Structures are given as C-alpha cells and as structure tokens.
Amino acid sequence: MNNIKQNLALINQKIDSLKSPTKVVLVAVSKQQNASKIIEAVECGQTIFGENYLQEALEKQQILQKYKLEWHFIGPIQSNKCKSIAENFSWVHTIDRLKIASRINDARKNMGAINICIQINISNEETKSGVRLGDAKEFINEISKLDNLTIRGLMAIPSNTNNEKLLAKEFQLLGNIYEEFKKIYPTIDTLSMGMSNDYLNAINHGANMVRIGSNIFGARA
Predict the structure, then answer these.
(1) What is the pLDDT of residues 77-87, one digit of tens each?
(2) 4-217 maps to which CATH number?
(3) Could you give the CA distance from residue 140 to residue 137 in angstroms, rounded to a whole number?
(4) Judging by beta carbons within 10 Å of its beta carbon (0-12, 13-18, 19+), is residue 107 exposed, middle or buried?
(5) Is the pTM higher than 0.85?
(6) d(CA 52, CA 47)
(7) 8 Å CB contact between 60 and 71
(8) What is the domain partition of the chain in residue ranges?
(9) Closest C-alpha to 114, from 84, 141, 75
C-alpha cells in the first residue's frame, strides 16, 4: 500500500539534503488522484497541488473547499477553458501563447493578478508545448504588458530520457535564461522544473519549484 506520509517525508528530506540557496517549493501533482489521497497529503502538511485537467480539478476543489489549498494549473490550456482556469487557480505554469495569456488576463479583471510561469520548450521538440528559447525575450516582453498577470518565472518539461547529462544540459540552459530574466523583471523569482524522476538534478541546476506526482501518490487512479 502506498504511504503518502512516508513518501512526502522522504522527498522533503532529499530536497533539504541538497541545501539549495533558495527555498524549494513542492507542488504535489494530484492529477488522476482522488480527493482522499489529497486529504492524506494535506494532513501531512502539503498545501500546494498541481492539476492538469480542468474539470477534474474543479470537482476536487469543490470537495476540498474547506481546506486552505493553493492550486496550480500545470496542463495544456484550451482557449475555452481560460476563464475557468483564471477564476479557480492561483498559479498557471503553462503560458506559451499570447492569445491564452490575454484571455486569462481579461478573466482576472477585478480579481487581482494571477501568478504565471512561461513554459519554455527547452528540448526543442516539435511535439512539445512551450516558447522556444530564442523567442522567450520577445514573448515575455509582450506578456509583461498585461496588468492582471504577474510573471513569476519559467517552467519546462525536459526531454523524456534517463540520460542525466542531457537533462543537466537542458536544466542548465533554462537556469541561465532564468537568471538573465530575473535581472530584467523584478517579479521573476521562480524556476519550475523537475518531476518525480529528475527533481534532484533540476534543483542542482537552480530549480526552486518542483512538480512531483507518482513519487508522492503512487500510480494514478
């Protein structure tokens, strides 16, 4: 039987052992996990959760509304879902199109700014979402004009590989551009990269937000 308490304790212990110069935020990826598992994690002190699918997330938010949780949207965004995402999440990690950013910005009017990360296609894969590194400066400059978005940082999903050197190269590339953008945009303070199989490598290359699912919850429902 999967022990969420032990899993969270082990992950936090590993993160702490790296002695990162900045606090590392753990986003528990709860997609395709039921509300009871999320409650187990909450009872262990976990309050930040990431969801990929809007309808599933809204149903769980309704069940869990008595808990003070911070919800991050970390999945692909369809245009017709922008309003609901804007209204029901504190963070959006997957901004990579101006059209999507504009719709979320408009939906947050009178609600206060929403925290966003720009998704970067760090591996340059044709089938992967994200802004290409060469286009990132211009894209962030355009996004920065939208009043209801707070650009908190960059997010990436690296190559799906066990090649530690390739992963390290991609993480380092994103870390470098993150440091560059931090000097330009005062709100940027977050580098969201690293998942269950590579989060320690990511932290060693500057990540201060990691998105971990199966290592906490086990196999998805």
Answers:
(1) 999 999 999 99
(2) 3.20.20.10
(3) 5
(4) middle
(5) yes
(6) 17
(7) no
(8) 4-217
(9) 84
